[in-house]
Amino acid sequence: MTSEFNRIITLLRKERGITQKQAASDLGVSQALLSHYEKGIRECGLEFVVKVADYYNVSCDYLLGRSTDRSGLTLNIEDLPTDENYGDGKYRGSILPTMNKKFLVHSLNLLYDKLSRDPDTGLVTEISAYLMIAIYKMFRLVYSSNSRNVQSMFRVPEKVSGGYATAEMLRTEATIQAILNGEDTKAGAGLKDTAGFAMTTDSLTKDYPVHGRSLLQLVKICEDRIMP
Fold it and tell me: Are residues 135 and 206 in the same domain?
């Protein structure tokens, strides 16, 4: 059984606000056994996977981490509308980079829409700065790979630009965390209420049918890379 199964069944239960005891009763197993399934201590059979899929109204592929869409659908490039036009309105390159670009654009649109629900100037400014520095770092790496490109385009010396940018990203991330924790910072007063940021995987896909699916796929891609 995939290691994603225990994480996902726990997530679904908690998002629905069901106790482990109640879920176990509804699924016809003991609480101790469900606890073992959720912790990944024991593996269940296919029959239980199907029962859980019906219980939470999701697909087996979703439960097994094979799809980020609850219905088990796989995202195709045609399913993702283009939010921005580049040149003649078409993305250039192979399918994978094109999909990734759309995942990024859609995820950013969703993020900024969430930020607009509970606007905080300091928070939006710092998040924007963090994202811009990340793009700056990648652009400069690509730019600098060609020795013919003139470095005088940039004010920060090439030898220290990467380290300085990383340090600034870490500082900005700390400021963002402080604002979200309600602490006052130089960027502004801390956020006192994060009710506008309440969300579940279900609400994300319902409120943002396309953008939510893109974001969940982006989360999966990132976690596949950073997991040891």
Answer: yes
